[in-house]
């Protein structure tokens, strides 16, 4: 089976997953009730697979789909304010062919970049449990095994940083000692991967100035530098 066929088979498995009863109930309730501003839309209401360039050298790891973003559109970081920031930055950095991401059919293409979430379903209050994180972990492991060119994992937030460390251990890499702490610009090397920390482009961070466009651009430039080393 080719890499593309294997990724498509994994996508089908992810989108049909029902391992976590709490997440299944929440994602489906949100898709049924909907937000008033999206009342005329059909929500995805299922787990979200990764997407991007299968030959990527940079992998971007987020927390989970937004209830009315990815859970609505069917693509991670698509249709929410965090995605507006992320994809605009990816466009400026040359990883995306356009600066917006509003639907699965909007023509967005990524080059040398793959985007996924640590938890594939929208969680209540945006807070997955440790068990839900661990249920999703094998999907990231299998994706990274298939994306053999990946060298950098850009972790958006502390939750993604922790999930990345766990994923690397599951891949058979040694966890760096002492355990590296998350921070904006933090780096840690394990096997063929360099973990790179970045504040999550949440509204809380972007509205307060904790994360600026310049900071995000600088992190993406560092990711490209590390992936080319």
Walkthrough of the structure:
The chain has 229 residues and is of the alpha/beta class. The chain has a single domain (3-228), classed as Uracil-DNA Glycosylase, subunit E. Helices cover 41% and strands 12% of the residues. It contains eight helices and six strands; from the N terminus they run ααββααβαβαββαα. The chain has a six-stranded mixed beta sheet, with helices on both faces. β5 and β6 form a beta hairpin. The two termini are 30 Å apart. The mean pLDDT is 96.
Kindly list the characteristics that best describe this protein.
229 residues, 8 helices, 6 strands, Uracil-DNA Glycosylase, subunit E, alpha/beta, 6-stranded mixed β-sheet
CATH first level: Alpha Beta
CATH fold label: Uracil-DNA Glycosylase, subunit E
Instruction: Assign the CATH superfamily.
Output: Uracil-DNA glycosylase-like domain
Shape field: globular
Strand content: 5-15%
Q: SSE order in H/E notation? A: HHEEHHEHEHEEHH
- Separation, N- and C-terminal Cα atoms: 30 Å
The largest sheet has its strands arranged as 1-3-2-4-6-5
Mean pLDDT: 96
Give me the number of helical elements.
8
What ranges have pLDDT less than 50 throughout 5 or more consecutive residues?
none
Q: Please count the beta strands (DSSP E, at least 2 residues each).
A: 6
């Amino acid at each position: 089976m080719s890499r593309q066929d294997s990724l498509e088979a994994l996508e089908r498995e992810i989108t049909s997953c029902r391992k976590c009863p709490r997440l299944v109930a929440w994602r489906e309730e949100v898709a049924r009730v909907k937000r008033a501003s999206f009342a005329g839309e059909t929500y995805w209401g299922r787990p979200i697979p990764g997407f991007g360039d299968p030959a990527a050298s940079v992998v971007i790891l987020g927390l989970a789909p937004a209830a009315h973003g990815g859970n609505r559109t069917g693509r991670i970081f698509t249709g929410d304010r965090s995605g507006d920031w992320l994809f605009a930055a990816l466009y400026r950095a040359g990883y995306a062919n356009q600066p917006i991401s509003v639907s699965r059919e909007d023509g967005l293409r990524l080059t040398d970049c793959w985007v996924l979430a640590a938890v594939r379903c929208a969680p209540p209050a945006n807070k997955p449990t440790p068990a839900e994180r661990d249920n999703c972990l094998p999907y990231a492991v299998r994706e990274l095994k298939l994306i053999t060119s990946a060298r950098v994992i850009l972790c958006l937030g502390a939750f993604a940083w922790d999930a990345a460390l766990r994923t690397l251990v599951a891949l058979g890499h040694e966890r760096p000692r002492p355990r590296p702490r998350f921070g904006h610009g933090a780096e840690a090397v394990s096997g063929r991967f360099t973990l790179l920390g970045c504040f999550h482009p949440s509204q809380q961070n972007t509205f307060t100035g904790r994360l600026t466009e310049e900071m995000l651009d600088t992190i993406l430039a560092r990711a490209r530098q590390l992936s080319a080393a």
